[in-house]
Structures are given as C-alpha cells and as structure tokens.
Amino acid sequence: MSTAVIERDLAVREAHSTDASGLRMIPDGVVRPRTAAEVADLLRECTASRTPVTPAGSQTSTTAGSIAESGLLLSLRAMDRVLDLDPAARTVRVEPGALLGDVKRLAAQHGLLLAPDPTSEDWSTVGGAIACNASGARSLRYGATRPHVRALTVALASGELLALRRSALEKNTVGYDMVHDQVDWFVGSEGTLGVVVEAELALLALPARVTGLAMPFAGEAAALAFVVAARESALGPRCLEYFDAQALGITRTAHGDRLAPPGAAALVYVEDAGDEDVDPDAWLALAEAYGALTDEIRVFEGEAALRDARDARHSVPATMNERGARHRAAGGRKVSTDWAVPYRRLAEAAAIARQLADDAGVDQAVLYGHAGNGHPHQNFIARTGDELARIERVVEATLKEVLKMGGTVAAEHGIGKIKRKWLPLQLSPLQIATMRAVKRELDPAGILAPGNVL
C-alpha cells in the first residue's frame, strides 16, 4: 500500500490547478511522493481503482499538460535530489523534481555542461524536460533533451519499476526499429506512458569561451535572411534567436536598451561558443552584408552578461503570460504556438502567419524564438472567449500552411491538452492508431495523464 498522502484540501488543489497554458483545472487530490517506491505503489493502486493520475513538476507547461481536471495531480517536486555526478564519465543522475538550472550550475562547477536549456530552466524540472523532450535557444547546436538522456527509471501504470539504458551497440537488426531503444518511448511521452522517477543525463565539456552578439535590424525580412546566412556559414553559432518589434518592446520595458537600441525593428541574438576567441570581423562582415545596424551591435561576454541577455529573452514569454492571465475571467488567455518549418522557409511562413492574422482582424502576435531551427513562437492575447475562438482559427490555418512546407504543429512544448485537436493535421490515422496501441499496452486502464496527447 502506498504511503504517499493524498491531499484533498481545496487550497492545496487550487495551488496545483494552473500552469503556463492559461487554463485552470482543479484536481480531485494532490499527491507529493518522496520516493520511487511511493510512486510505484500509488500507480498500482490507481490502476486497480481506475483513478486518473497526471504527473507534474513545476507546472510550467504551455499546453496544459501538467494540470488535471479529474483524478490525482502527482507532484514530483519533492523528488529533487542529485544522486550522483561523475565528472570522468560526464554523467549526472537525478530525480525528476530537480530544477534544470540547479543541475546546470552544479555541472558547471565541474567544468561540464547540461545541454538542454529551456528559457524557464530555473523553474522547470528535469522530469518535465524529459516528458516534453524540451529544447531551447542552444538546441541549434546541442539538440533537444532526447539525445542527452542515457538511462531512465520509469514507474509504469502497473506499479512496475522499469530500469532502462541506451544500448552502446553500433549495429542492431533485431525486430522493428521503433522498439530498439525503450528510453525513447518515454522521452516526449508527456506522462502518458509512465512516470520518470530517475534519469541519467549525459554532460558535455563547458566551452572555453562564449560570446553573445545582439544584431539589430531595420526590418524582419533582413533579420530572417541573416539567420539563414549565419546558419549556413562556417561561423557555427550555437544559437540564433529572433525578436520582432513587439518582442523588443517587451525587452526594453524589462531591461532597457541592453539588448537593442530604440531604432531597431527586429533583432537576432547570436551565441558563438568554442575553445578559440570569437572572430568579430567575420560576424561584422556577415551582419553588414544583410543590412544590420552594425553600429548598434551589443556584445555580451562573461557569465553575468550572458545571464542578462538570457533574462531579457525570458522577459518576453513571462510578460505575455502575465498579459494573458489578466483576461482569464472573460474567457481569454495567452495563445502560444511552437510550430516549425525548415529554417530556409521561416520568413515565408512568418509572412503567411501575419497575413492570416490580418485577414481575420486579429491583433498581430508577438513573434520571437528559435529562428535558427525554423522555430518561432507566436504569442497572441485573447481578451474574450470570442476572440480566443478567432485566434485559434488563425492558428489552425497557419498550421495547415506550415505542414505544406514540411513543418510540424509542435516543435518543443509537446501536445498536452490544448494542441491535441491539431495532432490529426500532421499524423495519419495509422500513426495515431499505433500510438494508441502502445498506450494500451503500457497503460491498459488509461489512468496516466488523461487528455494529454491522445
């Protein structure tokens, strides 16, 4: 029998009823286990009683993946220990409730880098990053979370604790490729197939030198053309982040002109990292070739300055979350996209997205994010329920155009509950049926994260 206490107090349930999605769902109870055994015992009992269980970390999900309208909210924040850090093997073992930022800082003390870097790393957990296959600005070089996960311990709905490790084989022809690496079953599964209770993550060597460059432009087209050129250059940036005029306005309010001068209508933030000094002349020449306001380029060197630039970047989604929250009572909220297209087509996709909003009479979204991967964020603010419906029609029309370009409806935030209606736009009935078959095998009672993904 599980020793984890189910808390039914309304105040506790309300404290776990919201995330960054703008939705509010009050669970029937909240459980805050401290051990893997408690999680496993709870899941076994919930399967027997057909009680839904939704795992959650710091509840920073933008897709309502970490809130539950029924059953239990399984908060893993108390399971936050760093179990082992091995500098020689370049690995770290952690519990799912550990904050990414804390683990990154611990690794840095050993000259090592935990690569996954969602902007909310100081608030988001390792378990959440694994559940959503989180990425961030530096994913341009390092990839999303998936390739950095070496091993997982997962509690299945049956109560079984499953220890999984990636194979070191270079060749394997046994069975279907989709079943070879069970670690990948759970990375990105959004809590629907099992609950991660421990993870071993690979670490990289910290680069000897990192320089941030904020490149301002007079317009969006030039800035996005520069992104393509920088991505295809020999300069090898580790991130290429885009800010439109509205996004820059938010950063100026929060951080003054630290990131960009008042005359800039668009900006690309670059990080150049490696073991050799940055070549400023090469970056300046490339920026000049694409019409950057080169006299106003800002340079960020040293941990404090780089953190300042990162905080300026984070002020955009943080501000938009605050703006959206003001309209919840009227049926509104922030509407956030995370579609992506092949990076060379980002300017085309952005122009189409803006035109669709204009045609519908919808206020233009704030556009910012991971342009180097062809992956921007559009943040709309719906002030009423009617406006929300209009914005969602614009988003759906945009997603259909994105898919025609070979894109995706969700590049990093997962599907959750908000985006599941758009899953069939991208996946075939056969693909969805295959996902449902895996779900039935691992969670036959359907208790895990109901409403997420499927």
Please provide a written account of the structure:
This protein is an alpha+beta fold. The protein has four domains: 6-77, 2-Layer Sandwich (Uridine Diphospho-n-acetylenolpyruvylglucosamine Reductase, domain 2); 82-167 and 178-205, Uridine Diphospho-n-acetylenolpyruvylglucosamine Reductase, domain 3, CATH 3.30.465; 209-315, Alpha-Beta Plaits (2-Layer Sandwich), CATH 3.30.70.2190; 326-416, 2-Layer Sandwich (Alpha-Beta Plaits). It contains 14 helices and 18 strands. The strands form four sheets. A seven-stranded antiparallel β-sheet has the order 15-12-14-13-17-18-16, sandwiched between helices. A five-stranded antiparallel β-sheet has the order 5-6-10-8-9. Strands 1-2-4-3 form a four-stranded mixed β-sheet, with no helix packed on it. Helix 8 crosses helix 10. The model has no long low-confidence stretch (mean pLDDT 95).
Number of continuous helical runs: 14
The tally of structural domains comes to 4
Average pLDDT metric:
95
Summarize the biggest pleated sheet. 7 strands, antiparallel
- Tally of DSSP β-strands: 18
* Silhouette: globular
Low-confidence stretches: none
CATH topology of the largest domain: the name is: Uridine Diphospho-n-acetylenolpyruvylglucosamine Reductase, domain 3
CATH class term of the largest domain = Alpha Beta
Amino-to-carboxy terminus distance: 30 Å
